[in-house]
Amino acid sequence: MQRTLVLIASIALTACQGETDPSPTASEASNPRERTVPAIPGETASPSLNQAEPAADECNADKLGRWLNLIPTPEVKDAIREAVGHDRIRYIEPGSVVTMDLRPDRLSVETGEDGRIKLFRCG
């Protein structure tokens, strides 16, 4: 009798939780980096684990090497804007709050503790 109750409880618990198949799908098995992180109930789906950085040429960041280690004065900012040909630029200082929205056409200019430009990237 007790064994029957345990079996019934086990079946009921499995039915309530739904089927879970821990084995990867065919595409996940061929490329495990393509898996996505499970979403938390009430939140939006998580991005892919291997979400790639936008290519440097999408925002023209590849044209800016000569401005590395300069202080972003108004003149330097004007020159950067002219070099990339657009004004979708944000300057990120250490400790700044940065939105996580991905905009491949936006140039992000990161500065270091010394106030000098350390990185150009799209996003």
Condensed summary:
With 123 residues, the chain is an alpha+beta fold. It has two domains: 1-51, no CATH class; 56-122, Trypsin Inhibitor V, Chain A (2-Layer Sandwich), CATH 3.30.10.10. It has helices at 2-17, 26-30, 74-84, and strands at 89-92, 107-111, 117-122.
Count of DSSP H/I helices: 3
The CATH architecture of the largest domain would be 2-Layer Sandwich
Just give the CATH class of the largest domain.
Alpha Beta
Number of domains: 2
Radius of gyration: 24 Å
Helix fraction by DSSP (H/I, runs of at least 4) = 25-40%
Q: What is the 3D shape?
A: globular
Alpha carbon gap, first and last residue:
63 Å
Structural class assignment: alpha+beta
Q: What order do the helices and strands follow?
A: HHHEEE
